[in-house]
Model the fold of this input.
Amino acid sequence: MTKCINIDGVNVPFEEGQTIMQAAENAGVYIPHLCHHAGYAPHGSCKLCSVRVNGRVCTACTFPAAEGQSVINNSRELQADRRRLTQMLFVEGNHNCPSCEKSGDCRLQAVAYYLRMEDDHFPLFYPPRPLDSSHPDILIEHNRCIVCSLCVRASRDIDGKNVFAVSGRGAHKHLIVNSPSGRLGDSDISTDDAAAHICPTGAILIKGQAFHRPIGQRLYDLERIDGSPHAGEASHEA
Amino acid sequence: MKPKVRVATTSLAGCFGCHMSFLDLDERLLALAEAVEFDRSPLTDIEHCGVCDIGLIEGGVCNSENVHVLREFRRQCKILVAVGACAINGGLPSMRNAIPLEDCLLEVYRDGVGLANAMIPSDVELPLLLDQVRPLHEIVKIDYFLPGCPPSADVFWSFLSALLEGREPELPYELLRFD
Done:
């Protein structure tokens, strides 16, 4: 007999060893996330996938599914917590959507739309962060990095290269590049690498692509991040 | 006759793009004019904000005059609204925040290309620049936020028509945009 967990009143089957996120994704249930990506080792750092499991808040991307679990995903309380977390991500960096070429394709922005984030709530940090344009084809815009470590995992686990790592702690946590100079141009990254394409924000970009698709025709201009179409207003909160 | 709702608008460290987008209401402006009258606004020429129901503020805060105007709006307006990206997070003008103010001034007024009589303006009439551009909510309480660069005319319409009908404004998903 298939084992099931219950997410928001719906039975969702899972296989032994799967996380709650994996079970939900297989069943087409959207749990907001940024540092999780299917097929990648879980990281559990962005906390956006926080769900209530048998009354306790856990991250769905790291928590193993178990028979009989009762999971609350889409509640007013959790959506409000996720909105605050997203606002923290915005104020900790310099996320200037109007001047960002990733706007419309950005998962950070799309999650903020999904969570109905209209303001930043917190005071802004405006951290001074550098730009690394040393590579001929790939740009690092540290202002937009949310330190999700997807590029670290992509380079290490998919590309077998170890181009990226995360250094420092707390507010000083930042992305570093594994090359003698610390600059991307001196690393062995290439445009074919998964690490060059996995960034959920506009922090790692392929150069020369900026406006191939105009604003208004981009991924999240056409559909919401939870996969539902734009037209027809659906409630996000239970 | 129902008394008209009094609305004030201003642009602080903004580009007036949000005001231009407001004017994109086009023929809906006629319906709006039936229900509201304007206090201080680029549309009127009134110098100081009087007692108002709604204050719409575009742009962040970049100098001392912006701070005074913002506080005057907060004192006078029952509902204060941060309009557009710059009012909400500093926007494009805040891109100077990573550069020391002195370096900005020297580059623009003394060391830039093609300057005649290069010098940093210091007339006492000029408001002093803040060391950083800040969003409105860091200085006064803001009641509503209209994101977008600029917010579309539909955003203004959705928001104002809700307020005028006594409903709680709620932007439809399609109108919530940061770009």
